[in-house]
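May I ask for a sample protein chain and its fold as tokens?
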Amino acid sequence: MSHQINQNSHVTLHYRISLEDGTELETSFGDEPLEFSMGEDTLTEGMELSILDLSAGDKQTITLSPDQTYGPRDPSNIHDILVADFPDDIKPEKGQVIAFDTPAGDDINGIVIDIKNDKVSVDFNHPLAGNHLVFEVEILKVNND
């Protein structure tokens, strides 16, 4: 009997995430498969919902909206930071990804999108926010024990 994926399943799968134009962003095909338990935030909630009820051997390709993946781009997640506030060993450059500490002590990555005079504009949106993503999966194993 084949087990269907439910909210408590441990799943082994291969996946590919691409932009709508076919640009591949990440894949496990040709490498080790991904093993995870549903609900542990390995995949976005929308990605998990898209594989519910699939069984070992199933393959699926689905286009997910920004709301199902990394959300829409939020202009309030773009912040201007004074050049003087950067550590001496970091010289901000456009396109550079920099890790920042949050007030809670977590790391968050920001992408430098502009530098004007003494201010650096940093985008803290997820790099894939605002994109429709093509999510391709091949379910290898489902464990519901």
In short: The beta strands are 10-19, 24-27, 34-37, 59-64, 78-82, 97-101, 107-116, 119-123, 133-143. The longest strand covers residues 133-143. The chain has two domains: 10-71+128-143, 75-123.
